[in-house]
Amino acid sequence: MRIDILTLFPEIMEGSFSASIMKRAQEKGYAEIHLHNIRDYSTNKHKKVDDYQYGGGAGMVMAIEPIAAVIEKLKTERLYDEIIYMSPDGVVLDQAICNQFSVVNNLMILCGHYKGVDERVREHYITKEISIGSYVLSGGELAAAVLVDAVVRLIPGVLNDETSALTDSFQDNLLSPPVYTRPPEFNGWKVPDVLLSGDFNKIDKWREEQALERTKQRRPDLLE
Q1: Contact predicate 3/31, CB 8 Å
Q2: Is 94 left (phi over 0), alpha (psi -120 to 50) or beta?
Q3: Which residue, among 65, 141, 54, 154, has the nearest Cα to 101 in the 3D structure?
Q4: CA-CA distance, 146 to 194, in Å (whole number)?
């Protein structure tokens, strides 16, 4: 999978992809993540990429010209399955969306800043708008990093144990059950006996029951 990210601040994102699972995914060739500085496509001598709103109002707007230039250039090089704009008024990211994106070949992600991007970018270039929650960030970079991480970890081969992603929260509209590791007792707090029993049928049943109960308590909306 190739992911191209359009941003005014690539330095914000570099650390997100240079360690842990994201680093290994790239080193193993499962994912290519390319950062493109939108300022490089500005024809303004000062590399300006924003301007005042038509009609007045607070906040600057990212101009269409440099954004269109980088999108058009990348589109001549490959076919994109989706061109995504990270926006607080987009579709809220969930596991189903991540699953869908994990099997595509090429994604392009635009990170907004300031008051947002010229609406014509959204109307004529963007194929999907995604939000990571009902709040506003300073820019789309952190949201894009969340999306990329959530998608790339699902690509077969990225995780050392591929079944791990299949048992994550939300994969079956349930939260994950509690998990424990050594020691079996700490400060008098014991691991449930069933997990030490070696009876995997009982363990699976216990985990299913715990997942359902935890979902009822914490996220009943998932069961609706």
Answers
A1: yes
A2: beta
A3: 154
A4: 35
Which of 142, 124, 143 minimizes the C-alpha distance to 71? 124
pLDDT, tens only, 82-109: 999 999 999 999 999 999 999 999 999 9
CATH number for domain 167-223, candidates 1.10.1270.20, 1.10.357.10, 1.10.3720.10, 3.40.50.10470? 1.10.1270.20
User: Helix axis angle, 20-27 relative to 141-152, nearest 10°?
Assistant: 60
Give the mean pLDDT of 7-32.
Answer: 96
CA 100 – CA 91 distance, rounded (Å):
14
pLDDT above 70 as % of the chain? 97
DSSP letter at 184? S
Q: Where in the chain is the domain with CATH 1.10.1270.20?
A: 167-223
**pLDDT tens string 164-191:** 666 676 778 899 999 999 999 999 999 9
User: Domain 2-152 sits in which CATH superfamily?
Assistant: SPOUT methyltransferase, trefoil knot domain (3.40.1280.10)
